Amino acid sequence: EGPETTRLRHEWPEGPTRRWLGRISDRNKIDLLHTVSVFCSPATGGESFGIVLLEAMAAGAVVVASDIDGYRNVATHDVDSRLVTPDDVESLADVMRSVLDDIDGAERLRENGSRRAQQFSMDALASAYVDVYRSAIDDWDARNSPSRTSSTSARFARSVVSRIGRISPRKLSR
Q1: Beta-sheet strand order (sheet of 82-84)
Q2: CA-wise closest residue to 46 among 64, 67, 74, 68
Q3: Which contiguous run of DSSP H or E holds residue 84?
Q4: Where do the H-state alpha helices sit in the chain?
Q5: The pLDDT value given to residue 132
Q6: Which of 63, 82, 89, 149 is the most exposed place for a label (fewest CB within 10 A)?
């Protein structure tokens, strides 16, 4: 929903291939993403990351999106997505057609997109944090005398790393 919604709804009424959903819950968004073959996000800027692309990749959709900074944080053209020049309607239409026509290419993008989304999963992120903490503790131990490594802060850091390492992905996603 936005300032142009009324005009756009009038210009592009609902039909067999188009639905206006308005605001939807996160659960509904994920459910809908699992029903699409291709997710298209023709943003023209202002996206700081690309979480919506990762959500689509995780749901198994092929991603076609604008080639903007925020989306390049997570998507790589012709590897896990197809990126097009912002505001280039003809190019966007051509890429959409090619993705829909090239079943093998679409499957490759879908598989690579799924792997890319997995890199940002809670399990992967928790593992990365544990690695960072362990590295920091190892660096601390290497630079300090044995008596200082038994300090309260060092014991606390080891305790945190131990606990993070035992957290299941299910607990992290809550």
Answers
A1: 38-41, 62-66, 82-84
A2: 68
A3: strand 82-84
A4: 5-11, 26-33, 51-58, 69-72, 89-101, 103-118, 122-143, 146-149, 152-166, 169-172
A5: 80
A6: 89
Give the whole-angstrom CA distance, residue 97 versus residue 103: 11
pTM above 0.85, yes or no: no
What are the residues whose beta carbons fall under 8 Å from the beta carbon of 95, sequence distance 6 or more?
64, 82, 84
Return the minimum-mean-pLDDT range out of 88-92, 98-102, 135-139, 167-171.
Answer: 167-171
Structure tokens at 164: 């993070």
Nearest Cα to Cα of residue 117 among 34, 174, 27: 34
pLDDT digits (tens, 9 = 90+) for 109-126: 999 999 999 998 888 888
For residue 81, what are the β-bridge partners? 77
Question: What's the rounded mean pLDDT across residues 131-155?
Answer: 70
Q: Assess contact for 118 and 139: CB atoms under 8 A.
A: no
For residues 85 and 72, the answer to whether their CB atoms sit within 8 Å is no
Q: For residue 105, which amino acid is it?
A: G
Closest residue by Cα to residue 70 from 43, 38, 88: 43
